[in-house]
């Protein structure tokens, strides 16, 4: 297959791109290298990918001309769409960035895919956050997703509805993947496991949110290698789109899957694991959960992905964090410069 990976300089995009390349697929990346978090980390991931022969075009998914050109030069059989404004709490600071990338950008990309001949099959990242205030756990794909707790979640839910229309009208093959709190080496500095590590090592205090009403605050933390296997499984089982040049010719595939780990861990346990692995006691502030878009608890039912994608997560939080901590220590203690070369 020949895959356009959007968000290729991002955390998940880097891992998926290099896995595709390793097994012999054609991969071209696209990323706008925005500064939502330290762009030097994105550049270091880019350098890593370039060493394995994956090149990233610098540009925005809202740039229609650029996308059209790319599709003219390369016949993409698949698009792995990971570019987005991620992060739950930042949506309260910069709401328009979510509309720009997660809604306008998605529509732009689908417009170009719809017009392409042949149309590619599209696999894209939705989010566990679409389950919002739903308290029925574990979350299964049939559960309600109409009560988002954050604008981020609302834009991912909107993406799922937009996917429905492009499938219905234009015959695009679309698979949405609801990732559950992904972590691992080359991860995202805005995520709790990452900045907890940084702050614990610096002796800075960390805030642990506790819910007064819902009991434990926990996440179904999912290791990056498991997510990559799920993404590859989705690409491999994606059927062809059925349209050409914007016209639908027959029924096309429309799917959505949970990609989680099925074992929620309280955030306080995540901190205890980090303390043991870093051999440093954290300075902790336990605070009652603020109204910041967070949901108290996530837990994936993955039987559909197991059945249809062969998805089977194998890394527990302890093992995965060990790999993250090893990477973190090497990257930030001199390895950073070497990695960027
Ligand atoms: N990491 C998680 O825990 C998690 C969980 C659920 C869903 N997701 C989703 O998975 C996808 C990948 O997440 P990630 O953790 O790798 O995030 P990330 O921020 O590391 O990667 C996203 C990449 O997309 C790029 N980008 C953003 N807007 C763009 C635009 N308009 N045009 C071109 N490039 C743009 C960014 O520069 C970044 O490199 C996102 O869609 C995210 O919403 C992530
Ligand atoms: O699964 C998902 O769909 C989402 O997973 C993560 O979102 P989140 O689970 O909120 O991840 P973090 O921001 O790393 O938070 C993890 C946990 O730590 C808690 N937390 C966060 C920050 C903090 O200072 N203290 C604290 O206790 C949060 O309440 C949450 O329970 C990603 O950041 C989102 O992009 C993604 O869409």
3D architecture notes:
The protein has helices at residues 11-22, 39-51, 64-73, 95-115, 151-170, 192-202, 224-237, 267-278, 303-309, 317-340, and strands at 2-6, 26-31, 55-58, 78-81, 121-127, 174-179, 182-183, 205-210, 218-219, 222-223, 243-244, 247-248, 254-259, 265-266, 283-288. The chain is α/β, with parallel strands linked by helices and 341 residues long. The protein has a single domain, classed as Rossmann fold. Strands 3-2-1-4-5-6-13 form a seven-stranded parallel sheet, with helices on both faces. Helix 1 packs parallel to helix 2 (39-51) and helix 8 (267-278) packs across helix 10. The structure holds nicotinamide-adenine-dinucleotide (NAD) and uridine-5'-diphosphate-glucuronic acid. Uridine-5'-diphosphate-glucuronic acid binds next to strand 8. Nicotinamide-adenine-dinucleotide (NAD) binds at residues 7, 9-13, 31-34, 42, 60-62, 82-86, 101, 105, 125, 127, 179, 181-182, 188. This is NAD-dependent epimerase/dehydratase domain-containing protein.
Keywords:
single chain; 341 residues; alpha/beta; Rossmann fold; seven-stranded parallel β-sheet; two-stranded parallel sheet; 10 helices; 15 strands; globular; disordered C terminus; binds nicotinamide-adenine-dinucleotide; binds uridine-5'-diphosphate-glucuronic acid
């Amino acid at each position: 297959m020949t895959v356009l990976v959007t968000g290729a300089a991002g955390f998940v995009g880097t891992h998926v791109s290099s896995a595709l390349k390793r097994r012999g697929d054609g991969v071209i990346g696209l990323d706008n290298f925005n500064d939502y978090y330290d762009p030097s980390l994105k550049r270091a991931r880019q350098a890593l990918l370039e060493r394995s022969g994956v090149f990233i075009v610098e540009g925005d998914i809202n740039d229609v001309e650029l996308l059209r050109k790319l599709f003219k030069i390369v016949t993409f059989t698949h698009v792995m769409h990971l570019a987005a404004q991620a992060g739950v709490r930042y949506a309260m600071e910069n709401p328009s960035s979510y509309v720009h990338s997660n809604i306008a950008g998605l529509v732009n990309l689908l417009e170009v895919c719809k017009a392409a001949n042949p149309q590619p099959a599209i696999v894209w990242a939705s989010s566990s956050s679409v389950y919002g205030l739903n308290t029925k756990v574990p979350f299964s794909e049939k559960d309600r997703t109409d009560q988002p707790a954050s604008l981020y979640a609302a834009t991912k839910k909107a993406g799922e509805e937009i996917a429905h229309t492009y499938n219905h009208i234009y015959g695009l093959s679309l698979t949405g993947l609801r990732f559950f709190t992904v972590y691992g080496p080359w991860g995202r500095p805005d995520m709790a496991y990452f900045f907890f590590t940084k702050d614990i090592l610096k002796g800075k205090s960390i805030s642990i949110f506790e819910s007064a009403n819902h009991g434990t605050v926990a996440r179904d933390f999912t290791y990056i290698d498991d997510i990559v296997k799920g993404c590859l499984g989705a690409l491999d089982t994606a059927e062809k789109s059925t349209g050409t040049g914007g016209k639908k010719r027959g029924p096309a595939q429309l799917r959505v899957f949970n990609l989680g780990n099925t074992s929620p861990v309280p955030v306080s346990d995540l901190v205890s694991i980090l303390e043991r692995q870093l051999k440093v006691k954290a300075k902790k502030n336990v605070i009652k959960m603020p109204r910041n878009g967070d949901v108290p608890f996530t837990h994936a039912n993955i039987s559909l992905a197991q059945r249809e994608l062969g998805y089977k997560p194998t890394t527990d939080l302890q093992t995965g964090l060990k790999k993250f901590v090893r990477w973190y220590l090497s990257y930030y203690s001199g390895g950073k410069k070497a990695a960027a070369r």
